[in-house]
Amino acid sequence: MTEMNPTSAATRLETPAEVRNEHVQSFGQAADAVERVEGRQFNIDTVDHAAQSPDTEMPWAELGLKRNEFDEVVKVLGRRPTAAELAMYSVMWSEHCSYKSSKVHLRQFGDKVTEDMKKHMLVGIGENAGVTDLGDGWAVTFKIESHNSPTMVEPYQGAATGIGGIVRDIISMGARPVAVMDPLRFGAIDHPDTARVVHGAVAGIGGYGNSLGLPNIGGEVVFDSVYQGNPLVNALAVGIMRHEDIRLANASGKGNKVVLFGARTGGDGIGGASILSSESFDDTKPSKRPAVQVGDPFAEKVLIECCLELFKGSLVEGIQDLGAAGISCATSELASNGDGGMDVELTSVLLRDPTLTPGEILMSESQERMMAVVSPENVEAFEAVMAKWAVEYSWLGEVTDTGRLVIKWDGETIVDVDPRTVAHEGPVYNRPYARPEWQDKLQADSFRASAAGADLPATAEDLKAAVLELMASPNMCSKDWVTNQYDRYVGGNTALAMPDDAGVVRVDEQTGLGVALATDANGRYTYLDPYQGAQLALAESYRNVATTGAVPMAVSDCLNFGSPEDSDVMWQLAEAIRGLSDGCMELGVPVTGGNVSLYNQTGSTPIHPTPVVAMLGRFDDVARRTPSGWREDGQAIYLMGTTRDELDGSEWANLRGHLGGKPPAVDLAAEKLLGELLINASRDGMIDAAHDISEGGLAAALSEMALRFGVGARIGLGEVCERDGVDLFTLLFSESQARAVVSVARSEEVRFKDMCGARGFPFMRIGVVDTENGALDFQSEFSVPLAELKEAHEATLPKYFA
Amino acid sequence: MTETPLIGDFSPAPDAGLSGARIGVVTFPGTLDDRDAARAVRIAGGTAVSLWHGDHDLQGVDGVIVPGGFSYGDYLRAGAISRFAPLMDQISEGAKAKHYPLPVLGICNGFQVLTEAHLLPGSMIKNNHLHFLCRDQRLRVENNATAWTSQYEAGAEIVVPLKNQDGQYVADEKTLDELEAENRVVFRYVDVNPNGSRRDIAGISNAAGNVVGLMPHPEHAVEAGFGPDSSAFGDVALRGGTDGLGIFTSVLTKIVAGAK
């Protein structure tokens, strides 16, 4: 607290805690009206006061706004903003909330859509989460979001509240959340700071998700030094509902009441969206720890049940969760999506910390809060539900027909804005972008031409060692140490979870109707070629869902990139979005929502561009799902697809410290055909196991299939090498796309071969399941005992983190 | 045990004769596995009745399950707040009744609630490795004379999911000796002690055998297709383990057999 006025030491300015000290002087001199509310003293900057003091200096830069943006606010309002208005605009116009750098590119997701792709889309991009029709009156909503910066600063709370936020998005749509997933990317496994982030993030995700009763059904764990200063914690939630239960975020109907319920508003997470998530990390700035929210999963669990009861009784007209930008976001979005305006009394907000200023209350990102619009006749019933679940609430105001969002502090107007200018009409930038000058050189640097690429394992002994090294490597090793800290059973509907290709959850207990979900990304591929890399992430997620037997239906994406103010990064982002939207069009799967996370860089070093694609698929009956491992002795093992010499960007090249060249070729037509074959084979009961081939190539796929149930196989690859014109190492380690391995019962072999043959998809029998040999036996080449493989595979994470 | 159904045939045919038995499943704020416990009762053939912690009425149920979860967030000590719920008075009274000691099963957080309510001795502390752990756990049924284990052979082994953070069973040596002497250790961890529990104890009963608590989750091993990948009774299909079903059929059978 500054000593600026000895006679009123308790007087505080309506400026967020972090920047208060620096700006108290200039701003304080102008703010002369001291209000006393319930013992609190603030210099209240009212709208009238703002109009009368146009020349007051405002701390716009410290709140994350640019000069031109502040000027725009003044233009929009026709006067300088009040301190509270400035707080609102600063968070709502932040990169995190406004998508100002990505918006011009993101439009492609809405533009590149055919009528056919809209067929099952009940709610598209723009709402809290997209909604897809599952048939039989069921609908599913899912979304993936980032919580990267908070996790770096405070891993446990950052990751925990990532789960909390995405789950509230799902509740806001009217759905019951049924599962979560979390793609995670950390720095180098042996870096001293990595364990801090890994322990915190994993415990946070588990601590929050497990306490909500949501099974964690999959995700990714990747280690790469590019994420050292900027770990990526993405969180996905999926929910189900009946069609009639879909809820949207809007405030309509003059006289309807606006209510805030759930946890109280505290001082945590102030500036989370603007200061923390919309700027790069930089050692010269003060700690951003206060900008991280603190989670209370119990409050959220109660909120879930309480909201579902409100929906059941049709007690709310509109509902919005409070996430980034807190009350600023909820009031402006509800009001601007509705047909009128909204009047709110801010002193009615229940506080954890009674010293918060109006601006802080508007910006606070305290978790586990929801805002709803309730018609007067439902007020009593609403309050009864709150009482049943012991949830605190306060009535803040009502919907008006003025078209204005008016926020008062003890009766005095401190905000008077057109809500659309806050929520939807923020700045939009056409940021300059250009293909980096280093890109050509990077792509010319192929692995084959490198020293390690010229010295590849060839002898039986070396190949066996290579398989063991690959399967023990940080990215290919067993992730059990992580996933065993998550509850995968709760709910009783989990039909598949990690380590299978996708998580599968039953929706309808009577029919077995259900959904499959997979998330995928490859930062190295995307670094080598952003357009193609994004399509490769899409292809892999599509393949993973189809491999389990589900029909891919919808995409949610989480685009993790560096600073948009860097033209190289901006090019990566533009290319990735173009690639992803083109790819979705070709596969016929719409993007229904997602999130963009920029400024993931430390100093001038950005992360690899990492577009994470979450694919949702549908099962008529989850009983038909296909696991990723074989079990039955004597079943035939088939390789589907062809293998090219594609080692650039591969896990093997990564193990040898090489990153250059071009990523594997994308063939979405082949992916689509492979998907159809896998889905048909699953439906008709032709295959008992299927696993896609991706990172780590055929070597990883066969190893994982054998380890899934601890059952060995005899494999012969000579014919495939000959057919595809590659050597054994390349066949095992190349990461060519549109490939999968399946196991087929003897009685189904003819049917399976006929099906592949009729569709002209390449396939070849490469082995037999062997329940006796206890090994992955590459006949006449080398053999890897399963015990040895298992030990190598499972020892890595405990070695570093247990 | 009945043979595990093949994939595609999810529901073991329930014994229609058991449907008259009504089992209450209690929901506290923060309870998570209540719907799962109710489903287990249904799959076993019984009728599940949901009970609200704040009510004073057991609705005439024949048995009660206090399910798993994080009631009140486990922010104080697991179960420490829930034991004061109005319904817990009814449950305690019923459990101690002379003419019909109400069968009560506490699973995970429910077990913690029952110890806090002094219906069962001992307590659970944080796992010795300090992590939440989810795994398919092998248990031995040490005592098949309780209300909840009569359908198993004594000494039978079962595989059911375990998932918790505070699962380490502790009690003083005297209590542990008493439990052993009175054959009140109902379930013991086999192969691996997953959390440092004293004497590998996974579940115990009261002296009368009507109240049983265990940390693992039998309600997650009742439906083929959604259970563990393995069974102690032989090979099963993918997620085909239903070894926990016997817990629920035990109590239903006992109720229907007219123990009331």
TrEMBL record, chain B:
<comment type="subunit">
    <text>Part of the FGAM synthase complex composed of 1 PurL, 1 PurQ and 2 PurS subunits.</text>
</comment>
<keyword id="KW-0315">Glutamine amidotransferase</keyword>
<feature type="active site">
    <location>
        <position position="217"/>
    </location>
</feature>
<keyword id="KW-0378">Hydrolase</keyword>
<protein>
    <recommendedName>
        <fullName>Phosphoribosylformylglycinamidine synthase subunit PurQ</fullName>
        <ecNumber>6.3.5.3</ecNumber>
        <ecNumber>3.5.1.2</ecNumber>
    </recommendedName>
</protein>
<comment type="pathway">
    <text>Purine metabolism; IMP biosynthesis via de novo pathway; 5-amino-1-(5-phospho-D-ribosyl)imidazole from N(2)-formyl-N(1)-(5-phospho-D-ribosyl)glycinamide: step 1/2.</text>
</comment>
<comment type="function">
    <text>Part of the phosphoribosylformylglycinamidine synthase complex involved in the purines biosynthetic pathway. Catalyzes the ATP-dependent conversion of formylglycinamide ribonucleotide (FGAR) and glutamine to yield formylglycinamidine ribonucleotide (FGAM) and glutamate. The FGAM synthase complex is composed of three subunits. PurQ produces an ammonia molecule by converting glutamine to glutamate. PurL transfers the ammonia molecule to FGAR to form FGAM in an ATP-dependent manner.</text>
</comment>
<dbReference type="InterPro" id="IPR029062">
    <property type="entry name" value="Class_I_gatase-like"/>
</dbReference>
<feature type="active site">
    <location>
        <position position="219"/>
    </location>
</feature>
<feature type="active site" description="Nucleophile">
    <location>
        <position position="108"/>
    </location>
</feature>
<dbReference type="Pfam" id="PF13507">
    <property type="entry name" value="GATase_5"/>
</dbReference>
<keyword id="KW-0963">Cytoplasm</keyword>
<keyword id="KW-0067">ATP-binding</keyword>
<keyword id="KW-0658">Purine biosynthesis</keyword>
<keyword id="KW-0547">Nucleotide-binding</keyword>
<dbReference type="InterPro" id="IPR010075">
    <property type="entry name" value="PRibForGlyAmidine_synth_PurQ"/>
</dbReference>
<keyword id="KW-0436">Ligase</keyword>
